[in-house]
Amino acid sequence: MKILLFCHSSRASSPLPGFIVFFLTCYVHKMESAEFRVMGPGHPVTAIVGENIVLPCHLTPRMSAENMEVRWFRSEFFSVVHLYHGGKDQYGEQMPDYHGRTELLKDGILDGNVSLQILNIRSSDEGQYHCFLQDGPSYEEALLELKIAGLGSNPLISVESHQDGGIRMVCQSAGWYPEPKVLWRDLSGKELPSLSEAKSLRDSGLFETENSIIIKERSNQNLSCLIRNTVLNQEKESTVYIADSFFPRVNPWMVALSVILLVLFGFIGLTVYLFKIKGNRDTKIDDLQRELDWRRNIVCPANVTLDPDTAHPQLVLSEDGKSVRCGDTEEDVPNKPERFDYWECVLGCEGFTAGRHWWEVEVGGWGYWAVGVARESVARKGEIICSPEGGIWAVEWDWDQFRALTSPVTPLPRRRAPSRVWVCLDCDRGQVTFIDAGDEAPIFTFPPGPVPGERIRPWLWVGPGSQLRLRP
Question: What's the rounded Cα separation, in Å, for the pair 335 and 326?
């Protein structure tokens, strides 16, 4: 223990040996009455990204720390994580990264327990922490090491293309920390060599990984992708079976047989379809004609911008009002009635009451997002109902799930999120259609409904790790 102490006698005329004896007696008595040590866990503490963690620290022997100064800091003494002094918490010197995220647990402070809780752990929190206590001139400290770990999403395995006489498979996942280890394995558990590997550190401080492999027919058709967090020693694994029909064929007899079967089943299917639509053929033709007209008219998109007065405080809009991302903290903005205050949503400035309109949304990042339209009167405060009943028509990407926000939600058969989405609004029919702008393939169409009689505005929901941009 470090201590600074001066003790003197009022008897200046006493002989020197007596003074020394008196001084030593006073010094030892003072040290015995005030001696303490600060103890940490003695081993690294591991925390999960997004969760809360307690950094343990206590005095020995047990004594009250209620009137001591308790300072938690990083590498520098004034890099304050949390400060307790004068019987209360002091936030004036606290680093901005820890504002609103720390709590000194005072339940055991009378017994010398000064453990610190950190909320919503981030990857940037990793490193060393000092637990420093001072009582008058006496002070001691303990050094702790905090390790951060993030367990990402389940691996998403997809078929990319034919290559080198086989199939190129890709395994993707996001939300890992530190950099994860990726393995391909066959049915017996044997490790398979990968073709390529790419890992990137996103703005959130978490890793995204993409790993590929080439699979040959009748070799390793049972395939699994395993991603392991080396700190937690935990892993996530996905398995697929590749059927023979996915592999490239060169046998002309098999090709001819496939064509014959395709034509035969196509003829049977066409016959069944014609019988099925008998009786309402005119209606179907009208619907088909409208769809064709709609596709032909998609040549002049609406110029849509975002309305900052409706944006959730955590959303960051570009100066031109064309792009939006989810920030780490909430901005200090006026709490207007039209502003969303619970979900990270924003509306477009423009609204439509009649005619047909469309615009393109470019999707970036790895996190959650949703795009669509909403009524002018959609709820802005508290939790909102994301479905036509709540005045919202939209599709969402939630990590590895693509869904239409119906009630209940409708899963959409896609292995990966589109990078660009066309939002098509037909006000006259009360219909909203979503199209993949990359290949112009339909994503989902909400059935026609009654015309709302009020303005319909673009609507975006941007979660952490995602960025949306309106084009052009």
Answer: 18
Single-letter residue type at 5: L
Asked if pLDDT for residue 33 goes beyond 80, the answer is no
Q: Read off the tokens for 458.
A: 């673009």
- Mean pLDDT score, 402-428: 87
- Say what the pLDDT of residue 111 is: 94
pLDDT band at residue 245, thresholds of 50, 70 and 90? Answer: low
Among candidate residues 357, 386, 312, the one with its CA nearest the CA of residue 470: 357
User: Cβ neighbours of residue 442 under 8 Å, at least 6 residues apart?
Assistant: 433, 434, 435, 436
Residue 356 bridge partners (DSSP):
426
Q: What does the pLDDT average to over 198-214? A: 90
Cis peptide before 464 (omega within 30 of 0): no
pLDDT for res 202: 86
Cα(100)–Cα(52) distance, rounded to whole angstroms?
A: 13
Residue 198 reports pLDDT greater than 70 = yes
> In terms of DSSP bridges, do strands 431-436 and 166-176 run parallel, antiparallel, or are they unpaired?
unpaired
Q: How far apart are CA 32 and CA 446, in angstroms?
A: 78
- Judged against a pLDDT cut of 50, whether residue 447 lies above it is answered with yes
The C-alpha angle 68, 74, 80, rounded to 5 degrees, equals: 55
The amino acid present at 329, given as its one-letter code, is: T
Calculate the CA 222 to chain-centre distance: 31
How many whole angstroms separate alpha carbon 93 and alpha carbon 96?
9
Question: What's the rounded Cα separation, in Å, for the pair 250 and 14?
Answer: 112
- Distance CA(5)–CA(20), nearest Å, equals 15
A 10 A CB-CB count for 243 gives 9
> Taking Cα atoms as reference points, which of 285, 283, 287, 304 lies closest to residue 429?
287
218 or 170, greater pLDDT: 170
